[in-house]
Design goal:
Elements: H1 3-15, E1 26-33, E2 38-41, E3 44-48, E4 51-56, E5 60-66, E6 73-78, E7 84-90, E8 96-100, E9 106-109, E10 112-116, E11 119-124, E12 129-134, E13 137-142, H2 143-172, H3 179-219, E14 221-223, H4 229-241, H5 245-258, H6 264-278, H7 282-295, H8 302-315, H9 319-329, H10 340-356, H11 361-377, H12 384-399, H13 401-414, H14 419-430
Parallel strand pairs: 1-7, 9-13
Antiparallel strand pairs: 1-4, 2-3, 2-5, 5-6, 8-11, 9-10, 11-14, 12-13
Helix pairs in contact: 2-3, 4-5, 4-6, 5-6, 6-7, 7-8, 8-9, 8-10, 10-11, 11-12, 12-13, 12-14, 13-14
């Protein structure tokens, strides 16, 4: 398939929509940013994002998405009439993350040297933090604990003063009776208790404060990568567009291996397969397209990944592997308003019959369902006559010869102005 087909049809597919389809089984795609989140359906773990569930039969279920360091997602979902369902979630971190972009500045966290900028500080608790420039670097500290410590220390000093005055008064009035002595005694006990409370409070604040200092300094500081997954992917796509496949592979590989949790990792695997395909390194292309459809199945490009996987394997003579992959992946619902992808899948799947000499009834049935889906929903498409012809041929050659001949005759009556179409009909009927 030519590059122009993939570039044009991929974006056409993303932008346009396909009308509704009857319920189930569904083809359910679940993806997250970042990826590698656990997916649970009705409390049962079913895989890790990005995830594709084929033959999914439940139209109402509880979905949970769990990833360490991020807030859980829980939803009660009811699916509608669409046969392909795409769910995407942006996960929210449990704690805030701060990045310092300055060059070669020492960074102090709660007065502890943590490293040099650029640097990221993650897993911070919610609250207020103080960031100030000082000689030799940047100071970062927890404003909440600093404020509490200062406030409690002030209260303790004030209370200690009052406690001291009460004690002094009690000593002066010792041995005496009367209201003054009683008030001083009560005051001494009250301010002594309040001082003890404040000292315990200060000890607790210091303990939590010091624990946070150790946690942040030891665990949550990392060098910041200036080049993000998005930057690398965009550069890779630019290089691919310029047919610089080797350099593009370097960028996509970096995304997959270094930013493996990024939402760009899955599509980078697909683009690596495509780069190898264009370089005619079909063994590597097959490796990456198989990795994509099984390990990184994302909604927008799944049909294209499957197409390339089948086409390359079929050209390599790996018929049995194609059948294994097809059975693992079915149903493969095709969605392409132009009809071009339907025609390509027809060519690939009918090639299996040609190579094996077997009809494989379940593939024929699946293919007929897809052609009917297109014909029912795309009556105004310019490709409609070609898809109608594929249905007639499929029936005539494999499933129902009489019905197939009826369709082919109908095509001859309706589209007799199209010489190419008439030629194909004659070849089928006379071949």
């Amino acid at each position: 398939m030519k590059k122009a087909f993939i570039v044009i049809m991929t974006w056409f597919f993303i932008i346009t929509g396909i009308p509704a389809y009857t319920k189930g089984p569904y083809e359910l795609f679940i993806s997250t940013d970042p990826v590698k989140a656990d997916v649970l359906i009705n409390g049962v773990e079913v895989g890790e994002t990005p995830l594709r569930l084929n033959n999914f039969s439940q139209d109402a279920f509880e979905l949970q998405i769990v990833k360490e360091g991020f807030l859980d997602i829980e939803e009660e979902l009811t699916l509608g009439e669409e046969r392909r369902v795409f769910l995407f979630y942006t996960l929210s971190p449990e704690h805030i993350k701060i990045t310092f972009h300055q060059k070669e500045q020492d960074i102090y966290i709660n007065n502890e040297l943590a490293g040099q900028t650029p640097i990221s500080i993650g897993n911070l608790p919610s609250g207020t933090f103080r960031i100030e420039k000082r000689e030799g670097g940047i100071a970062f500290s927890s404003e909440r604990f600093s404020y509490l410590r200062r406030a409690t220390l002030t209260e303790s000093i004030f209370t200690a003063g009052l406690f001291g005055l009460s004690i002094a008064g009690s000593i002066i009035y010792s041995g005496r009776t009367g209201p003054e002595a009683q008030v001083l005694g009560i005051s001494s006990a009250f301010f002594g208790g309040l001082l003890g409370y404040n000292l315990l409070k200060l000890y607790k604040i210091n303990t939590i404060y010091n624990k946070e200092v150790n946690d942040i300094t030891a665990i949550n500081v990392e060098s910041f990568r200036r080049e993000t997954a998005r930057d690398l992917f965009s550069r890779g796509m630019e290089l691919l567009g310029n047919e610089n496949y080797d350099e593009a592979l370097t960028k996509f590989s970096f995304v997959v291996n270094v930013f493996s949790d990024s939402e760009y990792a899955a599509i980078s695997v697909y683009e690596m397969g495509y780069c190898y395909y264009m370089k005619e390194n079909y063994a590597k292309a097959l490796e990456y397209f198989r990795k994509f459809v099984y390990d990184y199945p994302i909604y927008e490009f799944f049909n294209y990944g499957v197409y390339y996987l089948f086409e390359i394997a079929l050209n390599y003579g790996q018929i049995e592997q194609v059948l294994i992959d097809y059975n693992n992946l079915r149903p493969v619902y095709i969605e392409d308003e132009s009809g071009a992808l339907y025609i390509e899948f027809y060519r690939i799947l009918s090639g299996i019959f040609t190579e094996t000499g077997e009809t494989h009834e379940y593939i024929l049935s699946d293919l007929l369902d897809e052609l009917n889906y297109y014909l029912d929903n795309m009556k105004d498409s310019v490709t409609y006559p070609e898809i109608y012809l594929r249905k007639g041929r499929l029936l005539y050659e494999y499933l129902d010869r009489d019905e197939g001949q009826r369709i082919l005759n109908d095509i001859k009556e309706q589209y007799n102005y199209d010489k190419n179409l008439m030629r194909e009909v004659d070849i089928i009927l006379n071949g």
